[in-house]
Design a protein that fits this description.
- This protein is an alpha/beta fold.
- It has a single domain (14-357), classed as L-arginine/glycine Amidinotransferase, Chain A (5-stranded Propeller).
- It has eight helices and 19 strands.
- The strands form seven sheets. Strands 4-1-19 form a three-stranded mixed beta sheet. Strands 7-8-9 form a three-stranded mixed beta sheet.
- Strand 14 (256-259), helix 7 (267-275) and strand 15 form a beta-alpha-beta unit.
- The chain is globular.
- It starts with 13 loop residues before the first strand and ends in a 19-residue tail after the last strand.
């Protein structure tokens, strides 16, 4: 059967998806972008090198379990081809000691309709990560005559791309909070930089988080690249490490979103949702006070779920409160053990990238609010 690439949101019935692999994943060397991302108190600060074989095997067991669950629900699953990530990245503008991995395809690949757009990510260690997905992209191109395979402008990632003084020996979390509240990020506006996981796809509207991995120039690029879409900038005060929207603002079905209670969408930005009848609920608290060992992410991966359709969602099995909240919101919850995979790039949503969801490009926000779009 021909591959049909088409996905306009994260909640219509899922039919075809890419699930990542943990093979060859490395803790990448410190660099301008990653310094700002790794929490100050994290034991990962200063660490580098390949992940241990036992942790890779545990992560792959849980990724394979996700594949089996998806296939049991009738979802077609493809996997990337891991490359040797434990080798240096050298370009005319920078060099770094190793790469990262291919567990989180959501960071790399943005599916909008029949197009998959490869993101120009800001981490130097992730410069060649797209290569793990190129065999699949070539396959889709050969099989689907309507598939648009695009690469956003490749960034330089030289020193001009970053505020090189953003992270110094005197930095504190309070200073980071103050900077991010003022939208002062480590990524400058020198060139187009974004991670696909910073972009929330909602039919005709794309909501983009301005943070450590996505700058405003990227939003202008997306506005020009997708001229039939409306592009909105959002931010979530209270997060000193703003990166990726899918552990902060998660739609479950049309009209319903859960929002991280420690990173609430500001009132002016909520107006477009309220004007169109959307409910925004504070997500349930995580069952954990700490992330797994050697994990970049926060405990809020509890809300990083994978929606299969308007009534079905996969949630990490230990997150009992989140499962209960989903149930009360009318979702059929499929619990799945996934914490061993967290250190390799994130939660259930992070570990996947849409190829095909049923549905068309709907207008969920017919009532637009002045001042919320970047082109107004």
């Amino acid at each position: 059967m021909s591959t049909i690439v088409s996905s306009w949101n994260d909640f219509d019935p899922l039919k075809h998806v890419i699930v990542g692999r943990a093979d060859n994943t490395c803790i990448s060397p410190s660099e301008p972008a990653s310094k700002a991302k790794v929490p100050l108190d994290s034991p990962m600060r200063g660490m580098t090198g390949p992940r241990t074989l036992d942790t890779v095997e545990k992560a792959n067991v849980q990724l394979d379990s996700l594949v089996k669950l998806l296939e049991s629900r009738g979802v077609k699953v493809d996997r990337p081809t891991p490359i040797q990530f434990n080798q240096a990245v050298v370009t005319p503008n920078f060099m770094t000691g190793s790469m990262f991995g291919c567990m989180p395809p959501r960071d790399v690949l943005l599916t909008v309709g029949n197009e998959i757009l490869a993101a120009p990510m800001s981490f130097r260690a992730r410069y060649f990560e797209y290569l793990a997905y190129w065999p699949l992209m070539r396959q889709y191109f050969d099989e689907d005559k309507n598939f648009r395979f695009e690469q956003a402008p490749r960034p330089e990632l030289g020193d001009n791309s970053y505020d090189m003084a953003y992270f110094d020996d005197h930095i504190t979390e309070d200073i980071l909070l103050e900077r991010t509240a003022k939208l002062h990020m480590v990524t400058k506006e020198y060139e187009i930089l974004f991670d696909a996981a910073d972009i929330l796809r909602m039919g005709k509207d794309l909501f983009c988080q301005h943070g450590l991995t996505t700058n405003r120039k990227a939003m202008e690029y997306l506005r020009r690249h997708f001229p039939n879409h409306r592009i909105h900038a959002v931010n979530f005060p209270g997060d000193p490490y703003p990166i990726h929207i899918d552990a902060t603002f998660v739609p479950l079905r049309p009209g319903l979103i859960i929002n991280n209670p420690t990173r609430k969408l500001p009132e002016p930005q909520r107006k477009i949702f309220e004007a169109n009848g959307w409910e925004i609920h504070d997500a349930a608290l995580s069952a954990h006070t700490e992330p797994p060992a050697l994990c970049y992410s926060s405990v809020w991966l509890s809300m990083n779920c994978l929606v299969l359709d308007h009534k079905t969602v996969i949630v990490e099995e230990s997150e009992k409160a989140q499962c209960e909240q989903m149930d009360k919101l009318g979702m059929n919850v499929l619990p799945l053990a996934f914490r061993d995979a967290y250190p390799f790039g994130g939660g259930l949503h992070c570990a996947t990238a849409d190829v095909h969801r049923e549905g068309t490009c709907e207008d969920y926000f017919p009532k637009q609010v002045p001042g919320t779009r970047i082109d107004l």
